[in-house]
Design a protein that fits this description.
The protein is of the alpha+beta class and about 60 residues long. The strands form two sheets. A two-stranded antiparallel sheet has the order 1-4. Strands 2-3 form a two-stranded antiparallel sheet. The longest helix is centred in the last third of the chain and has 10 residues. The chain contains two helices and four strands, in the order E-H-E-E-H-E. The chain has a single domain, classed as Alpha-Beta Plaits (2-Layer Sandwich), CATH 3.30.70. The chain starts with a strand and ends with a strand.
Amino acid sequence: MRVIVKDICEGCGLCEANVPEVFRMEGDGTVLVMVDTVPERLEQDVRDAVDDCPTESIEVVD
């Protein structure tokens, strides 16, 4: 599984709070995806972050 963060992200930080191993907030409010491929043990956490994202900015690419 891979994830991308779309440009519509508002930088609320929920994704980083839920899965800091995958998402990191930068000082300017942008979110970086820290892994090329999400480890299997974190896949459900990432799917939950996708569901929780208020701007629907996270996309899963299987």
